[in-house]
């Protein structure tokens, strides 16, 4: 034990004593557990004994896993609330309609503008990812702005179908491609570092960087903004809850597995997006296979945004049901304008994490979390205290509203600080620099 004490370790020993016979008495089989902290200077690590400390540093155990599970659980509940609101008000097609139900014309305009901006920011993140992908695959063979423009053209063309029916088939291909790309990345990271890298349980991280990482996780659950539109196009809206549970179960499971594996073997070198975490040809292979996802996930966002504008302009007219040039041309113009704005955003904020952080703080904090609490409180108005269950749910949804507010305020501060710092570098807005090198 002396050797162990010199190392300052805690020794747990199991000693089994026997006579060699098959029968062992309680005296012959002893389980001896010895816990002896060393008195050496470094026995408690660099932070010393924190039992009575006002500032405790050792707080980082499995924080990422807890955040993934916690945010995912809350997002599942808030998605359920959106479904309940839709069933209560079948005419709600998007967040703007929900705003009108609660706050009248003003609510419609405010919620509608926020939804549109959020979706366009999402579209911008996909154009940015497209340019990162092209830079990775080609070895930065052209200006990043050119690659972004190519992504713009591809996205516009793929968004031109006016219904989700055709896009749903593309979504299946998108799903298969991202699963394959993620598997390649995880296998590649594990193969490159078979012994795994040391995981630091305590890391000195600036607040802005830490909260920006948290907002990136929030963005992973940001699909709620489109839920009203998807429910509207379901043949049986009552089955929405089943679809929600399937979606959230798959999301949380995939996020958890990918996060644990890549961080376990990639350590602090995990890139963002994570597909660039490997070396050699593997990033090119992963990005190449992920092309359907990079394009189609953005196209679905683009379709929802364009459909929102189109329905707002032509609801109640024959353009909604006609297959003519007169009905298609306005749709094409709307699609082109929205994707052009998204391209400008992607070029203005060329760092992937920063774009996601800003988008999450401004919009996902409310559409995925805060607003669902507001929806529930509106649906249950006047009945908050009618039972113990109702009182508990009232408290829960008030907390969810507060969570959304905190995410918005702190997320804006963190992302704004990061964007301002990046703007001072040579890799600022509308740069031809290799943006695949800005995310490691």
Brief digest:
The chain is mostly helical.
How big a fraction of the residues is strand?
A: under 5%
Could you name the ranges where pLDDT drops below 50 across 5 or more consecutive residues? 1-47, 53-61
The tally of helices reads 13
The main pleated sheet reads as:
none
* Mean residue pLDDT: 81
The count of strands amounts to 0
Shape descriptor reads globular
Amino-to-carboxy terminus distance: 44 Å
The helix fraction, in percent, is 55-70%
Radius of gyration: 26 Å
H/E topology pattern = HHHHHHHHHHHHH
Q: What structural category arises from helix and sheet content? A: mainly alpha
Features:
440 residues, mainly alpha, disordered N terminus
Describe this structure in words.
The protein is mostly helical. The protein has 13 helices and no strands. Helix 3 (95-138) runs antiparallel to helix 12 (352-379). The two termini are 44 Å apart.
Q: How do the helices and strands line up, and which of them pair or pack?
A:
Elements (H helix, E strand, L loop, with lengths): L1 H5 L56 H26 L6 H44 L5 H16 L4 H29 L14 H14 L6 H6 L7 H27 L15 H8 L1 H24 L10 H24 L3 H28 L8 H36 L17
């Amino acid at each position: 034990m002396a050797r162990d004490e010199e190392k300052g370790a805690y020794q747990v020993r199991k000693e089994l004593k026997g006579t060699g016979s098959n029968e062992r008495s309680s005296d012959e089989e002893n389980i001896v557990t010895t816990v002896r902290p060393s008195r050496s200077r470094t026995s408690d690590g660099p932070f010393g004994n924190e039992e009575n400390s006002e500032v405790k540093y050792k707080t980082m155990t499995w924080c990422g896993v807890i955040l993934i599970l916690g945010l995912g659980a809350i997002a599942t509940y808030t998605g359920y609330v959106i479904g309940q609101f839709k069933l209560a008000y079948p005419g709600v097609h998007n967040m703007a309609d929900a705003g009108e139900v609660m706050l009248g014309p003003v609510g419609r305009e405010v919620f509608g503008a926020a939804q549109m901006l959020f979706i366009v920011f999402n579209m911008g993140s996909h154009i940015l990812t497209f340019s990162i992908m092209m830079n990775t695959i080609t070895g930065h063979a052209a200006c990043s702005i050119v690659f972004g423009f190519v992504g713009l053209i591809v996205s516009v063309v793929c968004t031109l179908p006016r219904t989700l029916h055709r896009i749903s088939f593309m979504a299946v291909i998108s799903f298969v491609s991202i699963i394959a790309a993620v598997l390649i990345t995880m296998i590649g990271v594990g193969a490159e570092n078979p012994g795994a890298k040391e995981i630091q349980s305590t890391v000195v991280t600036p607040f802005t960087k830490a909260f920006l990482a948290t907002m990136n996780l929030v963005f992973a659950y940001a699909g709620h903004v489109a839920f009203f539109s998807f429910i509207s196009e379901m043949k049986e809206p009552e089955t929405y809850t089943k679809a929600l549970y399937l979606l959230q179960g798959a999301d949380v499971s995939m996020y958890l597995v990918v996060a644990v594996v890549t961080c376990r073997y990639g350590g602090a070198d995990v890139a963002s997006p994570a597909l660039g975490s490997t070396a050699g040809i593997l990033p090119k292979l992963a990005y190449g296979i992920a092309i359907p996802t990079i394009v189609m996930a953005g196209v679905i966002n683009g379709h929802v945004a364009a459909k929102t504008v189109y329905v707002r302009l032509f609801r109640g007219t024959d353009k909604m049901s006609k297959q003519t040039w007169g009905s298609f041309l306005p749709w094409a113009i709307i699609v082109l304008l929205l994707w052009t704005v998204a391209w400008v955003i992607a070029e203005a904020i060329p760092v992937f994490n920063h774009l996601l952080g800003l988008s999450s703080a401004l919009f996902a904090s409310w559409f995925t979390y805060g607003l669902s609490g507001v929806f529930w409180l509106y649906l249950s108005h006047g009945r908050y205290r009618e039972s113990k269950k109702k009182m508990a749910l009232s408290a829960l949804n008030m907390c969810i509203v507060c969570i959304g507010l905190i995410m918005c305020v702190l997320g804006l501060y963190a992302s704004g600080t990061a964007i301002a710092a990046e703007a001072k570098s040579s890799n600022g807005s509308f740069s031809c620099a290799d943006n695949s090198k800005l995310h490691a």
